[in-house]
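Quick log. Single chain, no ligands specified.
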Amino acid sequence: MNSTRNLIYLNLTISVKRLFISISKTMTPIKSSKRQQLIIAFQRMPIVVLAMIIFSLKINAQSSYWYGSLHSHSEYSDGNMGNDPDYHDVKSCYEYIQQNTLNVNYWGISDHNHSGAGMAIADYRKGVLEADSVNQDNVFTSFYGMEWGVISTGGHVIVHGIDSLIGWDNGNYDIFNGQSDYGGLFDLVAQRGNTAFAYLAHMEDTDFGNLLQVPYNAIWDSAIVGLALRNGPAFSTDTTYSSLPSYNYFDRYLDLLKKGYHVAPGIDHDNHYIVFGRTHPGRTVVISDSLNRESLMAAFKRRSFYASDDWNARVEFSINGFGMGSICSGPDNPEIKLYVSDPDGESITWLRMWVGVPGSGIMASSVVSMQGPGSDSLQFTNPIIPGQTFYYFAEITEADGDKIWTAPIWYTRSGNPPAFELLDFTAQRVGNQAF
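-> predicted structure:
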């Protein structure tokens, strides 16, 4: 009887340890000494009580998927280009989205920050207040921010979480930042800590002060959370969800990752007409435990989001229990798990896992792929040397051609490296799994 009881306690304790790992990315970190004290306390509890606690932790650790986009425009800059009389302000735009747009839980309006695109400081302040007025926890989350910059002088950056207008027009800003000073902008965003982020719109290879050519900057990295892998079509009037843009910015994603930046991919609609999210079904999918600004802001800051042409596809991607966007480490080789599901029943025809070394300047490469009907899951272990760091992300294709790109997971195997170096890694299929 005692041996059986000890075995049950052992299994439950292992479950507790695994739960601490799996929920660590969404909770305040627990010091190892405190974690051990909790485990000892659990070991002294009655089995029934311990089982109930574990069940509760599992329920509370569940994350949900929230669908939307960060980039669109109102009449406060150059939106509502059709001059629809019912949509002259930000509040009415959000009301349109809630009443007409399918499969959205949150939405971002990011009006241009300068007078050349129609922005006045008074309108920016109104936009902030109007977005607040429609924001409702557990129902719909509204973000109002700015699309900062000019394409001809360096590109556009989406900024959310700063209620003050950042600009350069005389008398038309709360916070001054020079028109082509992207480093200054990223510094300003970084100073706000976990309450604001920058996100790169329709990125070209020389944008943002030649971000890809200048040395990696850790402060800028802390400000920039992601980039758009698709954008627009910005001036479409389509409301039939049938105008998915064919072009993508996947190469810029690879460029930023090899440079050392920690970024995740999104889908931008960049709407300038009153069509918000109805031009195509693409969504930026955020993984978070709650639908509210605080929770979604935290998810964006930890890069827990992905780009999906499909408006309700769900992707579960983890390495040793750590989820999308995690920067993590452990003593074991990375065990990669990927599972894709679609409530509409669309099948997955291709899974591709990309692997790279951050900051190496070398493009990530595909190490494992699965093709054919039913390719909805992938699991393999990638042997790496202690001390090495790799990032991993997935590229997924559905039967109808829709693409999904996940956020990376950056994993370091802890420990001292041996006296030799692994020069190559080759994967091969065993049955229907890849190893």
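The domain at 315-434 is CATH 2.60.40.10 (Immunoglobulin-like).
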